[in-house]
Amino acid sequence: MNEHYRQGDVLLVRVDTLPSGATKELNEESVVLAYGETTGHAHRLSAATVTMYAWQGDKLIEVRKPTDLTHEEHSALNISPGIYKVVHQREYTPERVRNVCD
Q1: CB-based contacts of 75: which residues, under 8 Å, 6+ apart?
Q2: pLDDT tens track for 12-35
Q3: For residue range 78-100, what is the model confidence (pLDDT) as tens digits?
Q4: Rg of the Cα trace of the chain?
Q5: Is the pTM higher than 0.90?
Q6: Burial (Cβ within 10 Å: 0-12, 13-18, ≥19) of residue 34
Q7: Which long-range contacts (CB under 8 A, 24 or more apart) does 39-44 make?
């Protein structure tokens, strides 16, 4: 079964392994998956338990211990340890396909 979590416009999809060549991103206190365009609110995880990576245009996170994905307008989600691909929901408009914003 493919484990996944959705919070607003962010979807986390579990993957088997961290791809070789993935580049670790520096995060101080929190790992931000997405910012809201209008509110500035953010989907965030604790950098003490999560590391973010970039790989071929994708963002991946490694969750080392159970941790909460938080956002000011959504209930917190407890994320299980594992490797996840971060997917941003998209929508079609006559002008273009664009990311959905919280």
Answers
A1: none
A2: 999 999 999 999 998 888 999 987
A3: 999 999 999 987 555 556 544 54
A4: 14
A5: no
A6: buried
A7: 39/72, 39/73, 39/102, 41/71, 41/72, 41/73, 41/102, 42/71, 42/72, 43/7, 43/8, 43/10, 43/69, 43/70, 43/71, 43/74, 43/102, 44/69, 44/70, 44/71
